[in-house]
Amino acid sequence: MMTTHTVMLSLVLALYYPFCTAKVKPTMPAWDAPLAELWQSPDGVGAQSPSQGPVATRDLFYGPWGPERAPDPGAVYTFVERKQQGTNPGITVRDPHGREWHVKQPPHTDQGAEGPIEVALSRVLSAVGYHQPPVYFLPSLTVKDADGTHVEPGGRFRLTDKSIKAVDTWSWQQNPFVGTRPYQGLLVILMLFNSSDIKNENNILYEVKEPGAAPRHWYVVRDLGTALGETGRLAPLRGDPDIFERQPFILGVKDGVVRFNYHGWHQELLREIDPLDVAFAVDLLQQLTDQQWRDAFRAGGYQPRVAGRFITQLHQRIDEARRVAGEQTLAASPSR
């Protein structure tokens, strides 16, 4: 339960924080930006690692890391430590193979769980070219600790993999990709899912190592679980199909800028998104098959009925975005 002090502090931050954001600008000239560190074209152009193949052929159940890295639902996991920060409970555990997993568990409140949302959205982003760490979902896990062996609630499992190392965070406002189509398209996709947790501490810079190759970096948007509900700054409701179905998506286009029904943090990031950015995102998402959409939500542990409601609404939003992009592109074209 929130105390009066906590509520007042949250209100002060909500009023003060927007005036403290950094100016949105690239940190280097666009021609020097290593775009493949943010987004790898699905056709392999500009890729720094082998392409997964065309979007429509990609596995959205196991994701780009495959079944070989997935957690074993029948294993006994050794307790390492309990999560001390954040709004969702969680634990770090080690599996019988010595692999370390960070498990984000359901909250102790009526607020929707982040784990299923995070896995489903992560699958979609990775399928259309945005780098993601290995994440999976299990509804429960067996844990061995000082009190014995018992079953705990599961959730999002994120693997600590030796091929990628989290070395820093990165800023939405100032990074090499500001103004590029993939950067703007990423924001459009997050708007499509009503993602409210757009903050720099969720952006992780990974150092990526491959045998025989020099380390490089991935710019990754992580902890994607505050979505598929309403948008807002103070504890928006998430993972609720009733709420998600009621929320508007695109409010219109003014002075060439697409206006979204977004009430979360960092609205300054959306002030330069134009219809061509929306078209870029739509072109990527429309390459996903119906089965891939179902697999993405199945990966997050969703029941088919609930998944179907979210997918139907997402398809409606994609159609809306396509209409807006098409109408504005035609309006801007010279008459013949």
Helix content: 25-40%
Major beta sheet, specifics? 5 strands, mixed, barrel
Question: Overall 3D geometry?
Answer: globular
Which value, in Å, is the CA radius of gyration?
20 Å
Q: SSE string, helix = H, strand = E?
A: HEEEEHEEEEHEEHEEHHH
Q: Give the N-to-C terminal Cα separation.
A: 63 Å
Q: How many domains make up the coordinates?
A: 1
Oligomer: single chain
Low-confidence stretches: 1-19, 45-51, 330-336
Based on secondary structure, the structural category is alpha+beta
- In the sheet with the most strands, the strands line up as 2-3-4-6-5
What's the tally of helices?
7
Question: What does the average pLDDT come to?
Answer: 87
> How many strands?
12
Strand residues, percent: 15-25%
Provide an overview of this structure:
The N and C termini lie far apart (63 Å). Strand 5 and strand 6 form a beta hairpin. This protein has seven helices and twelve strands. Helix content is 28%, strand content 21%. The strands form four sheets. Strands 2-3-4-6-5 form a five-stranded mixed barrel. A three-stranded antiparallel β-sheet has the order 7-9-10, with no helix packed on it. It has a two-stranded parallel ribbon with strand order 1-8. The N terminus and C terminus are likely disordered. With 336 residues, it is of the alpha+beta class. It is globular. Helix 2 packs antiparallel against helix 6 and helix 5 packs across helix 7. The chain has one domain.
Output the keywords:
disordered N terminus; alpha+beta; 336 residues
